[in-house]
Amino acid sequence: MRKNIVAGNWKMNTTLPEGVALAKAVNDALKGVDAKCDVIIAAPFTHLASINEVIDKSKLGLGAENCADHVSGAYTGEVSAPMVASTGANYVILGHSERRQYYGETSETLKEKVNLALANNLTPIFCIGEVLEERENGTYLDVVKTQIEDALFGLSADDFSKLILAYEPVWAIGTGKTATDDQAEEMHAFIRNVIAGKYGNEVAENTSILYGGSCKPSNAKALFAKPNVDGGLIGGASLDAESFMGIVTAF
Ligand code: PEP
After folding, report:
1. Complete DSSP assignment for 195-245
2. How is the chain split among helix, strand and coil, in percent rounded to 5?
3. Does the C-beta of 174 come closer than 6 Å to ligand 1?
């Protein structure tokens, strides 16, 4: 059966001491609750090794927010999947809309990143989602289907089964404008069907599909109650341990 998951995406926020303190606060808060989902924090590269020292990895997973599309070599400023894995992190967010939009990431580069992540035992949290214009002109289902097909459908069923997907409508990220629970459910059910068409029902049923986009304690319960919404990828609200925990405990 697929897992329920709440993952925080800190983006380019927190200094190293602030990040370690936030990770400790989430780690401590988790000790006091019987979480009904897996909990992950994705932090800046510079913080990973230090955070790995202060959290209980049996309760709190650790991930990077990106990795390079090459394994090593003359790529100044890049951080490879083996480097991420060597910090103790087990997850990596790939294909976030901010990476696609501001850093020109394409399905071609993302294919390489996914392969390298998997080869280094990192679980990709792979993001897909349409922009506002595509939502409004009715092409949003096709857009997301193409994103999945182009970047992921070269994988074997075995490798695809290792992924976590995150549907993040770009118009809802950091805008305060959440997709309604029905909009999220429509897309998540559609994504599951697309996966079933390629890899069969068992793989589709076992794939965790998270919702991301202005998810907060006040709307998480309704979103997570939908049958095809298996949790959330949380940006802004993951920067405060209390509000992040408010989402974790929405399950
Ligand atoms: C995100 O960046 O993955 C995200 C969902 O951001 P926010 O929760 O701030 O909309």
Report:
1. HHHHH-HHHHHH--EEEESS--HHHHHHHHTSTT--EEEESGGGGSHHHHH
2. 50, 15, 35
3. yes
- Give pLDDT tens digits for 200-210: 999 999 999 99
- Enumerate residues 6+ apart whose C-beta is below 8 A from 57: 88, 90
Domain locations in the chain? 5-248
Q: How much is the pLDDT for 70? A: 98
Spatial separation of the C-alpha atoms in residues 189 and 96, rounded to whole Å:
21
Integer-rounded Cα radius of gyration of the chain: 17
Question: Whole-model pTM?
Answer: 0.98
213 lines ligand 1 (CB under 6 A): yes
**Pick the catalytic residue: 96, 98, 130, 188?**
96
Superfamily of segment(s) 5-248: Aldolase class I (3.20.20.70)
**At a CB cut-off of 8 Å and minimum separation 6, what does 225 contact?**
181
